[in-house]
TrEMBL record:
It comes from Bifidobacterium aquikefiri. The chain crosses the membrane at residues 74-95. Keywords: Coiled coil, Membrane, Transmembrane, Transmembrane helix. The keyword Nuclease does not apply. Belongs to the UPF0749 family. One of its GO terms (cellular component) is plasma membrane. This is Protein ylxX/ylxW. InterPro entries: DUF881.
């Protein structure tokens, strides 16, 4: 055990006896030893990091010399380059696929199907029109061109015959704000009032009530079974899609139609549209030509009454 002697240069050293350091209690010595051991471990870690930063296994690996030739080195570099290039391209493609909207592909597919059905529908209507003209020519050849006033009147009213005459035209267009905000946020577009199928239905109903004999919207004839409705954000006249601006033409008494469809007679309708920035324009037309409706309705339940 450690001990302490008196200093030899003291003048009273000859009269003093030796004094030894008493043994420390076991608890105190254990605490000191434990603290010393903790301090030693910390210092050993610092010493290893400072003086022996390289692991012995890695230091042994440095003894092996690289005996590859320049060709092998450049081939390895090219191989690593192409692998990195392939991984980068694959990651780019994956990121682009993740950022694309999966609904856009479905939407494009549905649009293509609708366009194909529309083309087929138009083609069928053209065939029907050609067959009808052939039937008329054949009837004229065999003497079947006798005038039937009832049939002619029904065909004119139902829209099965091409017609022409004087009338009026009503032009409608969405407000300019709707066009300017087409690329902005959808929440902004929802607050903008645009022309709907209900607005066109109101104009068509009021024209029929005013005495119109034939009506068309953007060149599509409105017959007895022609619907004006909305499919998504598109307005359909029958199966034909139309967009702003909308042109409603009606054949009939020009003065009566213009008076009944003026803003003074239709205050509520025009007032609602004017507040939204929609200003209908009514003008007289000296000659309007309208084609027949797309198809002839098939009567399954209606019969002539006795």
């Amino acid at each position: 055990m450690p001990y302490h002697r008196r200093a030899v240069f003291s003048k009273d050293v000859s009269g003093l006896a030796e004094r030894h350091v008493d043994r420390l209690p076991d608890t105190v010595s254990n605490i000191r030893n434990r603290r010393r051991r903790i301090d030693d471990e910390s210092l050993r870690l610092i010493d290893d990091l400072t003086n022996r930063s390289l692991d012995p296994m890695f230091s042994d690996a440095t003894l092996v010399h690289d005996r590859r030739g320049p060709l092998q080195v450049w081939m390895s570099r090219l191989l690593v380059f192409f692998i990195c290039l392939a991984v980068g391209l694959a990651g780019t493609v994956i990121v682009r696929e993740l950022h694309t909207d999966p609904r856009s592909k479905i939407r494009e597919k549905l649009i293509s199907q609708v366009e194909a059905e529309t083309r087929e529908y138009n083609s069928t209507n053209d065939k029907i029109a050609k067959l009808r003209s052939q039937m008329d020519s054949l009837s004229a050849q065999v003497g079947g061109d006798a005038v039937n006033p009832t049939a002619d009147r029904d065909n004119l009213l139902n829209g099965f015959t091409k017609v022409e005459g004087e009338g009026i035209s009503i032009s409608l267009a969405n407000p300019i704000a709707a066009t300017d905000s087409a690329g902005s946020n959808d929440s902004d577009n929802d607050n903008i009032r645009v022309i709907t199928d209900v607005d066109l239905q109101q104009f068509v109903s009021k024209l029929w009530a005013a005495g119109a004999e034939a009506i068309s919207i953007n060149g599509y004839r409105v017959g007895v079974q022609t619907s004006v409705r909305t499919a998504g954000t598109t307005i359909l006249v029958g199966l034909n899609s139309i967009q702003s601006p909308y042109m409603i033409t009606a054949i009939g008494d020009t003065n009566v139609l213009q008076t009944d469809m003026s803003s003074s007679e239709q205050k509520d309708l025009y007032g609602t549209l004017n507040k939204a920035g929609i200003h209908p324009q009514v003008s007289k037309e000296h000659m309007i030509t309208m084609s027949s409706t797309a198809g002839t309705p098939d009567l399954s339940y209606a019969k002539r009454s006795e």
